[in-house]
Structure formats: C-alpha cells, structure tokens
Amino acid sequence: MRRVVHAAAAAILLLCLTGCSNEPPNPNPRAGEPLATVPVDLPRYMGTWYIIANIPYFAERDMVGSRAEWKLRPDGKIDDSYYGRKKRFDAPEKHYQFLDTPVPGKEGGEWSVQLFWPVRVTQLTLYVDPDYHYTILGYPGKNLGWIFSREPDMSEATYRSLLHRLDAMGYDTSRFRRVPQRPDQLGTEGFASPGGGD
C-alpha cells in the first residue's frame, strides 16, 4: 500500500512540474527551440546562491528570502539544499534536501535532480557569468526557470539583462516573479507579494 501511495504522489508531482498549470501557452516565438546548456566549473559553482526571481513550482510559491546551497561530494554528486520562508521573514525557515547528479558528457551544465526516490527531474544551467556571480537555471519545457545571484541584491540593469537572455532562449519572461530577499521589498513594485499575486 505504501508503494502505491508513493507512486501516486510521484505521478502528481511530475505532472505539476511538467505542465500542471493554469498559465496560457508560451507566446514567445522561440518557445519551441530547445534549450542549450553551458559548461560549468563545478567546484567554482558550489556554495550559496540567492533566488532573485523564478517561475515557481508549488513548493516555492509565496516564499521569501529563499536560497540554494550546493556542496560537491567526493562521489561527484551534489548535495542540494533549499531554504526559504513562507510569506513572511519572521516565519520559520523551511528546508528541502535534494541530491543532484551531473549528467555525463554535459560539461557540468545538466543535472539530474532527485526530489525523492524515485522521482528525478532535469535541471539545466543556461548561463553563468565569467565571475560566477549570476546564473540562470532552466527546465526543458520552459515552464520553470530561476535567476540566481551570489548576493541577495541585484541591480535592475543586471536583472533586466538576464531576463533579456531568457527571452532570447524562448521563455515567457512575464511569468518570472522576483523573490523578496529583504523585508522592505515585500509588496513593492516589481516584487511578488506572497499570497496575493504581484
């Protein structure tokens, strides 16, 4: 019985990750073009990344102050920790733990992410700047995406330039939501208001 429940939960999760959405079809004329990964220096890529903006999946909705922490293991896999708070900065911090495996032959740019056994999804590194200060992560169907930064703040010019890159890749950039990283950003222009849309 337990296996049946786990299988059903896994099927629902996969459906939600791959298309369980009320969003209209992607209007970008390049929507059908495949995403291309970039080579990644994995040791340099490790550490803390703040989530500046995303097309959130259900576990990320209404989160503030969210970040990812990656640690390269001796076996070449990556301990992937997600942290965030629900709606308020004084809410208890939530933590999700994943295990990522770089896909052979992809130069570190494609990871197989184990959400929980046996569910795996594909995560693509679509851009990383030369100094490894900013990175863009994507999902093959372009229904999920993330803009990460080593710092919790990002200039508007940098943010716009990264959105421009996503647009050129075929993303519907109107679906990206900026994630508040400080209490004073909550509900301000351009930032998501947790629990209340934009």
Automatic annotation (TrEMBL):
Main subcellular location of this protein, as a coarse class: membrane
Database matches in CDD domains: lipocalin_Blc-like
Keyword field: Cell outer membrane, Lipid-binding, Lipoprotein, Membrane, Signal
InterPro entries (alphabetical): Calycin, Lipocalin_ApoD, Lipocalin_bac, Lipocalin_Blc-like_dom, Lipocln_cytosolic_FA-bd_dom
A GO molecular-function descriptor: lipid binding
A Pfam family assignment: Lipocalin_2
Annotated Lipocalin/cytosolic fatty-acid binding domain residues: 40-181
Annotated region described as Disordered, given as residue ranges: 178-198
Function: Involved in the storage or transport of lipids necessary for membrane maintenance under stressful conditions. Displays a binding preference for lysophospholipids.
Subunit structure: Homodimer.
Protein name according to UniProt: Outer membrane lipoprotein Blc
Organism of origin: Paraburkholderia fungorum
